[in-house]
Amino acid sequence: MEPVVVNQEKQAEINPQKKSSRKKVWSFLKKNPSGMLGLILVVITVTCALFSNWIAPLDPGEASLTSRLSPPSWADETGESTFFLGADQLGRDLLSRIIHGAKISLMVGFFGVVIALVIGTLLGLISGYFGKWLDDVIMRVADIQLAFPFILFAIVVMSVLGTGMWKIIIILGLTYWVGFARLIRGQVISVKELEYVQAAKAVGGTHFTIIRKHIFPNVLSSILVLGTLYIAEFILLEASLTFLGLGVDPTIPSWGGMLADSRNYISSAWWTATFPGIAIMLTVLGFNLLGDWLRDKLDPNLKL
Fold first, then answer.
1. pLDDT digits (tens, 9 = 90+) for 209-263
2. pLDDT by residue (tens digit) across 46-66?
3. How far apart are the first and last CA of the chain?
4. How far apart are CA 255 and CA 276, in angstroms?
5. Torsion 220-48-100-37 (CA) sign
6. Strand partners, 93
7. Which domains are present in the chain?
């Protein structure tokens, strides 16, 4: 019987560890309601973007001049549902267009961050680790990049090359790599002086191995946090450019385009501008709250 008792005791010791590891994130979210709210908002937005074809009640491009600027309503005279959030100036369902617009905003935010992250991380690691003339060259290029206001730079480029979602993504990625590079460079400079990194160099570790095994894992948390915050900023920038007529094609449902179309109807049809604006606000708020939660979760300096 004794071996069985011992096994039961060992199992009792292991199970709490497994349960605690599974519930670690959940318990942290319960203690941080803002992080929970941000996660919920992001999940809702991502769900709308991924399953927009099934969630949207109507075709976002289907126009009906007889329903032009119809106010929000839950049912018509026959008791059937109509436009839950109203219709725009062409009689298109506002709710369906907002749901499909989430796809554009998230694609711009995600792919723009991926491009900026890859370029900025690579240059930041090289600049911080090797230093010397490589550091000077990369940081001077970053300073030149920061000297150009983004909106002005984007307006000039889009005016010359034309509009399009992927052009916005490329411009965002080639502009905002500086933030990743400068952040990672500063952290690499401090991490490379630690004892275990110096020991890896002493035993003959290659530069690539040291960066991959000892330095990159230490800056990964900062990359995730900054990337989450940049997604929110990219969503705002895409909406701004589209509002100015230099972003996504007007035939594609997008939140910025919906705001641009509603400029002449704010006083007579408030819903055409209000609901797309709320969608942008909640999505940006969700990513910002999620980024703050990731910072609190991953930054060891805040775990006091």
1. 888 888 888 888 888 889 999 999 999 999 988 888 888 888 888 999 899 888 8
2. 999 999 889 988 888 888 888
3. 45
4. 6
5. negative
6. 87
7. 31-61+94-302 (1.10.3720.10)
